[in-house]
Amino acid sequence: WFFTHPELWDRYRDAYAALAARLADEPRVVGFEVMNEPYWGTAGITEFEPARLAPFYERVAAGLRAAAPGRWVALEPSVAHNLGLGTELPRFGAGEVYAPHYYPAVTELGNYEGDTAAIARDFDSIVAEARRLGAPWLVGEAGIVNDRPRAADYLRDLLSACDARFGSVTLWDYARGGVGSWGLIDENGAPHAIVE
Questions:
Q1: Higher confidence at residue 54 or residue 83?
Q2: If you write DSSP's letter for every residue of 7-55 in order, what string do you get?
Q3: Above 90 in pLDDT, residue 146?
Q4: Residue 184 and residue 131: Cα distance in Å, rounded?
Q5: C-alpha–C-alpha distance, residues 14 and 10, integer Å
Q6: What are phi and psi of 188, to 5 degrees?
Q7: pLDDT tens digits for 155-167?
Q8: What are the beta bridge partners of residue 185?
């Protein structure tokens, strides 16, 4: 519904630009992600990004660049990217960063078996998408439920794949969480075994 009502985009842009203006001089803020895991709703999966998401991104990104010059604007493909679909977003503009999330099914549903080749293929696809988009890239969000078998191996292999491609990743979730959560630290602020 939201993506068929451009008048709401202006309100979204204006609210986000006000926040960006307040943070424009904050040295710990490098940029702003326009929307977390955009969902295609009633649109067709392949039509959503070029017909609805891209125009929304263009409008909001312009407001963010005006409010916080020099800060990155991170653009994420639709959540369908987590299902293995490539992005249909058009080429990016200056200061825009391709920031897909990376959650293969093993991170939520199963056991990581050490398939570094699969991670490498996925990261090669992300790099190829970024090149087509004419943009730098980072994995905007990745992680694994902290009690999954070999979760620490998965994080190590994920970070190695990213490093091998000169990329960056933001891990979900650096918050206090118990065993069985996405949290990297426990309720007392100590690292879970996954990050040791």
A1: 54
A2: HHHHHHHHHHHHHHHHHTT-TT--EEES-SS---TTS-HHHHIIIIIHH
A3: no
A4: 31
A5: 6
A6: -95, 0
A7: 999 999 999 999 9
A8: 176, 191
